Task: inverse folding
């Protein structure tokens, strides 16, 4: 599917390094796509922070992600970083943006087609800009996370590097939570499940909402039954997966994709997730975990977790959520765009 | 100086309406330039919020300024508003931006020249983007507020509509402060001058720094000697000028321009300002007020304020800080740009 004469630009966010050291789902996916494309022989330029690690050609204007560099203004960094890719548009046959809505505002000033993977709609207030540019090219990361009226070419599920998360044949005893500490992610519900099931819970992730952490998480921490260990990198995740009986993901709003569910499944860890949004696409109910409607159902699901075949969890990730599957998905989308653009010109 | 075949776009900020109802210095200046250009026969399109008031052609994508509309995300509003002007670049011979550094990031994607009036550098962290685009066309609003290395074509002082601020032949008894409630503006120093001189102080302006207001302003308010009356519109400013003996402007960092100094002087109100930044250019020491180095000097200056001829204050504004003078200044700059662009093409 590679088109040898085509030059691709991947525009990654610069909140964090690509790939991120710890948190940074969008940068993770941008990295996985980039590396997957290079592995398949594509000519790829990655626009990311200068400390990024890639086998593609790296183009950087900011030394570090703005979340990792207090000397930098995030707004300045964004404008400098995004415009840099568009100023070089003529060098590319396609710009593939992973950087939210901002790059859309440059798309009508260049001739190169731009594909936007929408990794999530952070607020209804960002919809006006998507509506203005709805005729662009879009990919959703799950069927559930779509806005009406946008020119979607496909859903391409995020893919992970399975070699990073080896299968744990035997699970541990703990419940684990992995994600941003934010009400959306239902950390408080995971704590309730821990309490009701009498199982230990280990919580990992960046604190995105300080008040929520202080009021709904911290009071339950006791270094024993409920522990918070901060953000974790890949090694830290694997340590967690090794001791995990189940990953709890009781999000309170529809998840957009849920990369961590896939990572857990890859390691053989079953997932108990809320029956909302993309969780329904990522988790196969009864096969790679359970979809639940509330805390009571989650407790019951945890009790039945031995019914889940850990090997089957990994197999499903291999088939649907690997880098290769994702890159093949994008290759089909790129092909569609090249065809459409060729027709426009002829 | 008008060039009848040239079409101008004025890009105003959209924090507030153009002109603003109350606070909003950049929108005020953008409005004054627009109206001044139209009055002199130019073909002008103003990019501003839809509720803006102008005799130019108005192009708007946002109903209101984002500071006046809680349903709007300011970042989305900015990207939509700025890109709109650049997407229409081919319709203009010049885009004149008053909207900070963000529009610079679009300038290399269009052929129309862009002039940026830098109304202020809000932080050293924004300098990298000015440095990248340093070869653009820039105007400073005072000689003092210049960054090194930028391609400045001129300093053009901001101009006001003098008809809005009629001369008060006789002053009142009060000290007045007009500006954002922020440490930069030295409200606390004005309060000290009030205390030491035994004169009443009336403070007007938006509270930009809540903690500063709470800690350094509010404790001194007594409805008698020191009063805070909130933000004021033009009518409110005129009421203040009518009762003012002197305007105190004891800014703690170099002022960029200081529109309020000019407004006060237009009304015949002398100004005691810190001997810093653009105040040295706007206030003629001993003629339209006094430049001082500290609170003690400010108290002495207030005592000598009867030496200032109120009519001379207004005369100086007419000569140097009127809309007409400003527009003539910009016409010269536009002319320079048209010549430079013609040379580039030939």
Result:
């Amino acid at each position: 599917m590679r088109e040898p004469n085509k030059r691709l630009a991947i525009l990654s966010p610069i909140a964090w390094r690509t790939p991120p050291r710890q948190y940074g789902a969008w940068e993770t996916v941008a990295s996985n796509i980039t590396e997957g494309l290079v592995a398949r022989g594509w000519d790829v330029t990655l626009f990311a922070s200068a400390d990024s690690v890639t086998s593609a050609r790296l183009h950087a204007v900011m030394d570090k992600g703005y979340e990792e560099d207090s000397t930098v203004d995030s707004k300045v960094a964004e404008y400098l970083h995004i415009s840099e890719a568009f100023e070089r548009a003529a060098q590319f046959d396609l710009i593939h943006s992973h950087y939210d809505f901002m790059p859309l505002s440059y798309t009508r000033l260049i001739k190169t087609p731009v594909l936007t993977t929408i990794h999530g709609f952070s607020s209804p207030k960002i919809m006006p800009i998507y509506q203005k540019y709805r005729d662009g090219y879009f990919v959703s990361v799950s069927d559930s996370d779509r806005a009406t009226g946008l020119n979607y070419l496909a859903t391409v599920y995020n893919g992970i590097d399975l070699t990073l998360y080896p299968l744990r044949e035997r699970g541990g005893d703990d419940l684990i939570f992995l994600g941003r500490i934010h009400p959306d992610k239902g950390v408080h519900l995971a704590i309730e499940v821990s309490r009701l099931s009498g199982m230990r819970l280990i919580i990992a992730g960046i604190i995105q909402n300080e008040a929520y952490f202080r009021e709904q998480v911290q009071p339950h921490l006791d270094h024993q039954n409920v522990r918070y260990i901060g953000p974790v990198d890949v090694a830290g995740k694997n340590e967690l997966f090794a001791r995990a009986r189940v990953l709890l993901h009781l999000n309170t709003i529809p998840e957009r994709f849920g990369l961590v569910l896939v990572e857990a499944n890859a390691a053989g860890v079953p997932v108990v997730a809320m029956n909302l949004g993309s969780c329904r696409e990522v988790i196969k109910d009864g096969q790679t975990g359970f979809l639940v409607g509330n805390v009571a159902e989650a407790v019951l699901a945890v009790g039945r977790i031995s019914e889940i075949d850990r090997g089957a969890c990994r197999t499903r990730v291999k088939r649907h959520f690997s880098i290769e599957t994702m890159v093949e998905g994008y290759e089909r989308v790129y092909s569609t765009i090249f065809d459409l653009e060729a027709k426009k010109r002829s």
Chain A has a mean pLDDT of 96. The interface with chain B takes residues 61, 71-73, 75-76, 79-80, 82-83, 86-87, 101-102, 104-106, 108-110, 123, 125-126, 128-129, 132 of chain A (CB under 8 Å). The first strand of chain A starts at residue 7 and ends at 11.
